[in-house]
Write a structure and sequence with these properties.
Alpha-Beta Plaits, alpha+beta, binds FE3-S4 cluster, 4 strands, two-stranded antiparallel ribbon, globular
Length: about 80
């Protein structure tokens, strides 16, 4: 399984991820992206049917702020 979170220290709020994978990403009140599934904790496996969109969004992030790992992420 894949786990994902947005690095809010480098996200510039470009919105590509939300445009590509709106099931996974949203923008917060500061305009920065987060993973909706677990409020950007990176501890909940991304559903299989959303993995393709997740990978594309990660590829298309201009600041490479989408962190993907095969294990749960921690701060
Ligand atoms: Fe931020 Fe990258 Fe999405 S800059 S808004 S995580 S595409």
């Amino acid at each position: 399984a894949l786990y994902a979170k947005v690095d809010v220290d480098t996200c510039i709020g470009c919105g590509n991820c939300e445009a590509i994978a709106p099931d996974i990403f949203d923008l917060d009140e500061e305009g920065l992206a987060f993973v909706k599934l677990d409020d950007n904790q990176g501890v909940t496996p991304i559903p299989e049917d959303q993995v393709e969109g997740l990978k594309e969004a990660a590829d298309e992030c201009p600041t490479s702020s989408i962190v993907l790992e095969e294990h749960p992420l921690k701060d």
